[in-house]
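Researcher: Sequence recovery benchmark, item below. Answer with residues only.
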């Protein structure tokens, strides 16, 4: 028979050497944890049924191959509750010293008192780990029976020193105290505390702020996992993107302001694969079948990074209609879209509003077309449906143009129909050949005619649909004599035969973007040329046109800064923008746009 002391020692040894249960972290959490009214409007047993995207991050708590977990998530996605559930599993199954780092000590105290402690007290399993002396459980330092948890504010660097820990939980890292002349950044100090444990883990979470922010930089270092759900219509896996949230473009009152009630009622998600409309109820069902997929094959081993926007949340505040209204209200507020982009889309802010100041000329409905106007059709080809985006613009002989139509189609026959509907002749059609060039060449040869060459010895020329290809700025675009950039280059497409030539129009994409930017500012900024829109240009059109921004980039060791065009982060579509750039190239070769008058070079290099 064992004495009472021996029995107690044996129980302690069994607890220390207790193996990790086969039960998953998700199963353990759903069996033992309870949510209170302070955490959700639906208190009761913890469940991942409506938020299945939290299951894989939860399993990272017990996966020995995972060293870092980065949650770059939007609001209303349960990122903090997920951390709390995982930490409870750790205290019960793999007790280890833990540090929970928050932006300030005041916030840490409030979180511990209002969310963490009620969460523990509602669980029978967690209450068993409370010490007999409850004074060992304070708001900032909690000594459980087999491990210690410490809450620290990033504004208290002294509290981060000399605390060896195995688990670091860093919540809202983009709001942490930055480095000073005396101290390293708070996050760096906390990471240093885990070096004494070979099996240490770091859990970093935050809504992003800027491209240079801590959470976004750590997300890029990981495998960049995104949550794919099956479309309820075509069943192909898709990730939810904000540009696919649509609403009635005519939901406006007599003054032109958005009617928010109609916007909320008409909002829906349009599948990027089949264009099917996905309702809020269908979203909830599809999310339950979703899977995480890594998108960065060059990730640091052991670093799991997860990106999740509020589009996935089943919360009532995150329906398509409520998010559309939030977007419109944010865009029209004094603070702009940064809060929406950071908090709801979980994307970094680039310090440039998605809505440029609207300076474009809007032609009245009864305004006469440009004198002697010639319509030009340009098409951007894609690998997925919708396969074609197009723009039709009427050009006068002196650079005066007006938008006639734009949209997307799925077949070549529909593009041909759009051409004939708007009276565009074959030689005024330009087709992007950057994707599936052979297929584009074949269809260009269907529409046009063969004419003899004007120069002896040259093959006949095919005149009709013209393949086009945009290229970024490089040295070859500079004229060797004047050293000025050339807007386009007319060459020949590579055909399998040599019976005649098919013109290939290559244009300088960056140069055309500079020209388009000037034209959009109105006649005063574009040498008197009028680049007009009509009232059919809705938010989708401007979303495409504003997809690229100018960014400074230091080149080499010379210290010179080149201002280049680049896509915004956050999956901005740019298909109609490409069509408008093709419009400029086509107008130039048909002598409808005297580009030299508006192409005064801007200073693009300066000493850094």
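Model:
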């Amino acid at each position: 028979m064992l004495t009472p002391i021996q029995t107690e020692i044996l129980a302690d040894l069994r607890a220390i050497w207790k193996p990790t249960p086969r039960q998953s972290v998700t199963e353990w959490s759903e069996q033992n944890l309870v949510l209170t009214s302070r955490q959700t409007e639906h208190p009761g047993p913890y469940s991942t049924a409506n938020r299945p995207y939290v299951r894989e991050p939860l399993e990272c708590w017990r996966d020995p191959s995972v060293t870092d977990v980065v949650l770059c998530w939007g609001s209303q996605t349960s990122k903090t509750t997920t951390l709390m559930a995982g930490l409870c599993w750790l205290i019960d199954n793999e007790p280890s010293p833990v540090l929970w780092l928050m932006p300030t000590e005041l916030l840490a105290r409030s979180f511990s008192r209002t969310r963490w402690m009620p969460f523990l007290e509602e669980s029978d399993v967690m209450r068993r780990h409370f010490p007999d002396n409850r004074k060992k459980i304070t708001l900032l330092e909690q000594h459980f029976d087999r491990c210690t948890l410490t809450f620290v504010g990033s504004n208290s660097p002294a509290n981060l020193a000399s605390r060896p820990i195995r688990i670091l939980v860093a919540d809202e890292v983009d709001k942490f105290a930055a480095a000073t002349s005396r101290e390293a950044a708070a996050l760096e100090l906390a990471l240093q505390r885990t070096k004494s444990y070979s099996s240490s883990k770091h859990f970093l979470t935050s809504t992003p702020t800027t491209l240079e922010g801590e959470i976004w930089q750590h997300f890029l270092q990981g495998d960049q996992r995104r949550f794919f759900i099956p479309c309820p219509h075509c069943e192909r896996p898709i990730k939810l993107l904000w540009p696919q949230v649509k609403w009635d473009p005519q939901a406006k009152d007599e003054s032109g302001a958005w009617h928010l009630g109609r916007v909320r009622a008409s909002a829906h998600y349009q599948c990027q694969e089949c264009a099917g409309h996905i309702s809020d109820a269908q979203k909830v069902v599809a999310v339950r079948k979703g899977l995480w997929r890594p998108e960065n094959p060059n990730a640091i081993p052991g670093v799991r990074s997860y990106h999740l926007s509020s589009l996935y949340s089943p919360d009532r505040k995150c329906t398509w209609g409520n998010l559309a209204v939030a977007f419109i209200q944010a865009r029209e507020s004094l603070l702009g879209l940064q809060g929406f982009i950071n908090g709801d889309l979980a994307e970094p802010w680039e310090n440039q509003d998605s809505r440029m100041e609207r300076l474009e000329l809007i032609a009245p409905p009864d305004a006469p077309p440009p004198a002697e106007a010639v319509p030009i059709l340009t098409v951007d080809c894609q690998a997925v449906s919708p396969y074609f985006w197009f723009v039709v613009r009427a050009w006068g002989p002196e650079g005066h143009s007006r938008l006639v139509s734009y949209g997307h189609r799925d077949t070549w026959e529909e593009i041909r129909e759009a051409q004939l509907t708007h009276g565009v002749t074959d030689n005024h059609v330009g087709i992007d050949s950057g994707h599936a060039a052979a297929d584009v060449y074949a269809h260009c040869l269907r529409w046009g005619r063969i004419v003899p060459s004007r120069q002896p010895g040259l093959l006949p020329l095919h005149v009709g649909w013209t393949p086009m290809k945009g290229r970024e700025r490089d040295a070859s675009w500079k004229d060797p004599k004047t050293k000025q950039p050339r807007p386009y280059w007319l060459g020949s497409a590579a055909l399998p035969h040599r019976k005649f030539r098919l013109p290939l129009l290559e244009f300088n994409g960056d140069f055309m973007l500079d020209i388009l930017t000037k034209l959009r500012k109105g006649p005063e900024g574009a040498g008197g040329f009028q680049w007009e829109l009509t009232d059919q240009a809705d938010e989708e059109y401007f979303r495409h046109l504003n997809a690229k921004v100018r960014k400074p980039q230091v080149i080499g060791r010379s210290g010179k800064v080149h201002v280049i065009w680049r896509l915004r982060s956050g999956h901005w579509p740019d298909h109609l923008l490409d069509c408008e750039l093709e419009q400029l190239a086509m107008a130039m070769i048909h002598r409808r746009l005297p580009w030299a008058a508006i192409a005064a070079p801007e200073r693009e290099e300066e000493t850094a």
